[in-house]
Specification:
The complex is a heterodimer of chains A (137) and B (222).
Chain A: H1 4-9, H2 19-44, H3 51-71, H4 79-104
Helix pairs in contact in A: 2-3
Chain B: H1 3-8, H2 26-61, H3 63-70, H4 75-100, H5 104-135, H6 153-186, H7 196-221
Helix pairs in contact in B: 2-3, 2-6, 2-7, 4-5, 4-7, 5-6, 6-7
Classes of the chains: A mainly alpha (137), B mainly alpha (222).
């Protein structure tokens, strides 16, 4: 975001003077993406407890940022285009955070988590022993 | 509008077949077209956000099942598909560089490679789907795999098929768009000044890659 003013200035000049370093930069980004993929796969199946999801999302976010900034030219696109895309990301986060705020502030009884749920018997796994199933249907 | 701007960019102005009559310069037209594309990509992000939300909510409810089911997917095939998509993104980016330098044949070749990558992705995905059907790892009431007993496993596969299915649909659309762009390149429609279609086809393809970058760890690894 620091160079947004800069990018807006050479808005019209997009695609004129960047040929020389274009290919090298793309290949560097590609190698970084491959490295990120390798790192995700290697760390993904090591049990880090809660660390797994944090690490996986972090690596995915870094990879996504590289794609958006360099492959999709977000780094030198006019500010209007960035606002549009960033706003969609913000609203996605609002959606997810809003729903999780609801989930976290509910009490256990209203959650269908935990083996055999009495609240949603229709989402039981077929093959679960009958004894574990709730009595009333 | 400003005639000085038109001369500054050495735009042909009126009579340019690539320029719609309501735009003054090629840059102005390309800017408007790019903004429209980013708006569309914004709606795509919101579309997939709904799916990711469904994933996180059900994962929260059925943590064990999601963990167990993610181990039922083929990690080698998933990794291979990730590498294929990332590489295809590179190809389409290089195709845009090539067309900006007026290297028509190189651009066409890179687009063909991109489309072949997309095809390879779909073929591998279809092998994965076929295996799921064989072992009964299917959504909702069709789930019939006796080895995965954690409650909620069928919901994992509902999310799996919805997310990868919607993504595969985007791969097919992206392939079609790139094939259309390729047709234009082969006809010599694009050049150093007129290549916004190649750029936007690439943008769409990068979004397909972007979605998979998140889907892969969430479905295969966690």
């Amino acid at each position: 975001m620091a160079n947004s003013a800069n990018a807006t200035n050479n808005d019209g000049g997009h695609g004129h003077g960047e040929h020389s370093h274009g290919i090298g930069r793309y290949i560097a980004v590609w190698l970084a993406l491959l490295a990120g993929t390798a790192l995700t796969v290697i760390t993904g199946r090591i049990d880090l407890g809660a660390g797994n999801i944090v690490l996986a999302i972090t690596i995915a976010s870094i990879k996504a940022t590289l794609v958006v900034l360099f492959f999709m030219h977000m780094i030198d696109t006019p500010a209007a285009n960035r606002i549009v895309f960033v706003v969609s990301l913000v609203f996605s986060l609002v959606l997810i955070i809003g729903v999780f705020g609801d989930l976290w502030t509910r009490n256990e009884m209203s959650l269908p988590s935990g083996a055999p749920s009495t609240l949603a018997p229709e989402i039981q796994v077929p093959g679960t022993p009958a004894a574990e199933r709730p009595a009333e249907h | 509008m400003s005639s000085s701007e038109a001369t500054a960019h050495a735009a042909p102005g009126r009579g340019d077949p690539h320029l719609a009559h309501h735009f003054d310069t090629q840059d102005q037209q390309d800017g408007a077209v790019r903004l429209g594309m980013w708006l569309f990509l914004g709606t795509e992000v919101l579309l997939f956000a709904g799916l990711f939300l469904g994933y996180t909510v059900y994962r929260h409810f059925f943590h064990e099942a999601f963990h167990e089911c993610s181990r039922a997917l083929s990690l080698p095939l998933g990794t291979l598909n990730t590498v294929i998509l990332i590489t295809s993104s590179l190809f389409v980016a290089l195709a845009h560089v090539a067309i900006k330098q007026d290297k028509q044949k190189q651009a066409a070749g890179l687009l063909v490679l991109t489309i072949l990558c997309a095809l390879a992705f779909l073929v591998i995905k279809s092998f994965e789907y076929a295996h799921k059907f064989e072992v009964g790892e299917l959504p909702g009431k069709w789930f019939s795999n006796p080895e995965i007993t954690a409650p909620g496993a069928n919901l994992y596969f509902t999310v799996y098929f919805l997310a990868t299915g919607l993504h595969a649909f985007h791969v097919i659309v992206g392939m079609s768009v790139l094939a259309w762009v390729l047709k234009g390149v082969l006809k010599g429609k694009y050049g150093p000044r007129n290549n916004v279609a190649v750029e936007l086809g690439g943008l769409y393809w990068h979004l397909v890659d972007l979605v998979w970058i998140f889907l892969f760890p969430l479905l295969y690894l966690i």
